[in-house]
Amino acid sequence: MRVAVFSTKPYDRQFLSTANEGAGHDLWFLDMRLSVETAPLARGAEAVCAFVNDDLGKPVLEALDELGTRLVALRSAGFNNVDLEAARDLGIRVARVPAYSPHAVAEHTMALILALNRKIYRAYNRVREGNFALDGLLGFDLNGKTVGIVGTGRIGEVLAHILIGFGCRLLANDPLPNPACERLGVTFVEREEVFAQSDILSLHCPLTPETHHMIRAETLPLLKPGMMLVNTSRGAVIETRAVIRGLKEGIIGSLGLDVYEEEADLFFQDLSDRFIRDDVFARLLTFPNVLITGHQAFFTKEALANIAQTTIGNITAFGECGCADHEISVEKIVRAESS
Ligand code: NAI
């Protein structure tokens, strides 16, 4: 199969090329993000391989359809960037990588929680400058604290396992409570109760109309004052401007982010010799109690190898029988939501 692979970095090329050795697909690696402007680069490719910030809205899918694309192979678990209805209407199949390493994301979430709580990022800079003062570095014991997990799928479940090891009390909210989490001692309650009781709140749900701006101006008062908010799911699950207000008012005591609503124009690029045009993001960077990583939670060797293998597997299966292993469609989503 000829495959136009958008948004590729050297590490994507390396892992995808290795996974492709036995399969022999013709992979065209493209640095640029997929958009209406760049879609014509997929001319002649039966499959398009895309990542989290590629635009797979209706206009792009229509352009790809005209160019002959039959499969969109996502290198991600999340598919909020794809207009699945438009894909169905155009007869374009969409496949994803449902699970590549929940450990990678859960462990990164834990890293954010620990680094934020003990201010490791501040301590690192201070010690390098010969400043060994401890003022401003005060943390709290995780043992005995209440952690709320919104979304107890693959990642939320692994995080629950990790947090149990730290002696935390776990609350969770999920429309489909996870029995494995219940066996661990996680208590499932309404979202409002998770918000009210959590010293740390970690978000692990997909971005859907229901979860869009779950943390916003109206829900800020429901949070436990001084709580820690961590988001490694998708940026738009929180409304950034409201969260900035929450930080200024002390409702949010600290904030750890691996994702950001408007990350498409920032993340995965080296912008260190430019200024940041996004004033909201720039404001976030001014808080000493905010720690941001640039969508790197997935970024482990194991995860990249699994992403590459599953993606190549999806493309191979589609080439052989017209149906990829891990297809996602509007019908499947509707069925999952109503089950
Ligand atoms: P998953 O599909 O295994 O679990 C998602 C869980 O969220 C499910 O249990 C589902 O029932 C629940 N959920 C759905 N709607 C909800 C709602 N309204 N309220 C509460 N829970 C709800 O997905 P997985 O693999 O655990 O990934 C979770 C999210 O993490 C993904 O959707 C993706 O957006 C994000 N992610 C981020 C990465 C990163 O590098 N930062 C990497 C991989 C995934």
Order the strands across the largest sheet as they lie in space.
8-7-6-9-10-11-12
Spatial extent as radius of gyration = 21 Å
The separation of the N and C termini measures 36 Å
Question: In what range is the share of β-strand residues?
Answer: 5-15%
By DSSP, the count of extended strands is 12
What is the CATH C level class of the largest domain, in words? Alpha Beta
What is the element string, with H for helices and E for strands?
A: EHEEHEHEHHEHEHEHEEHEHEHH
Label the overall shape. Answer: globular
Quaternary class: single chain
Mean pLDDT equals 96
Could you list the spans in which at least 5 consecutive residues all have pLDDT below 50?
none
Ligand identities: 1,4-dihydronicotinamide adenine dinucleotide
Q: Quickly count the helices.
A: 12
Please name the fourth-level CATH homologous superfamily of the largest domain: NAD(P)-binding Rossmann-like Domain
Largest sheet: 7 strands, parallel
CATH topology of the largest domain, anyone? Rossmann fold
- The helical percent reads 25-40%
Backbone structural class: alpha/beta
Q: Provide the domain count.
A: 2
